Amino acid sequence: MTEAGRGLITNISSFGSRGHLHSVLYGMSKTALDKMAADMAVELKDTGVAAISLWLGLIRTELLLSLGIDEFAGFSLQRAEDPEFVGRVISRLARDPDLAAHNGHTLVTAELGTRYGIVNNDGTPPDSHRAAFGGGPLFPPSHQVDVDDRIPSREDLS
Asked: What are the Cα distances from residue 50, in Å, to 11, 46, 65, 97, 141?
């Protein structure tokens, strides 16, 4: 990708890096993916390749729909994401002329869907779960340090 001067690396993370969800190990692994995307952005600066972590909402899987319920964990299944939704979001994100501005960030797929006009197969826009996990900016913080202001490496100091 760096040779081509363009590309997108996405991680599928979760709101579980913001608040407790499932278990300690789940939250740690998702937080690590968000941090990895942020650190990759430093190393990918000016290559044309972006690393982004994505937080999906509730997914309307066949198993979940087979339960015959309208809500799961307090979220409406009618406003959950179809399994194909994230693929359409990633495809559109990869074609975003401003892709570099997202490098190193954690983004919510439902919010990207709203920005890009992407909806579920039935035409409904999925809900963002940001508010359920405290709202606010995602990783990295809105006051993100410029990648040129990073802590110097040993090579930089010699």
From this structure: 11, 9, 34, 12, 17
Per-residue pLDDT of the chain (158 residues; tens, 9 = 90+): 889 889 999 999 887 777 777 888 877 878 889 999 999 999 999 999 999 999 998 899 899 888 888 877 778 888 899 999 999 999 999 999 999 999 999 999 999 999 999 999 999 999 988 877 666 656 554 334 344 444 444 454 44
Burial of 70 by CB count in 10 Å (0-12 exposed, 13-18 middle, 19+ buried)? exposed
pTM for this prediction: 0.81
Does residue 26 have an active-site annotation? yes
Beta pairing, strands 49-55 & 7-13? parallel
Domain ranges of the chain: 7-142
Residues 7-142, CATH architecture:
3-Layer(aba) Sandwich (3.40)
Give the active site residue among 26, 72, 75, 116. Answer: 26
| Burial (CB count within 10 angstroms: exposed 0-12, middle 13-18, buried 19+), residue 24 | exposed
Q: How many CB atoms lie within 10 A of CB 14?
A: 24
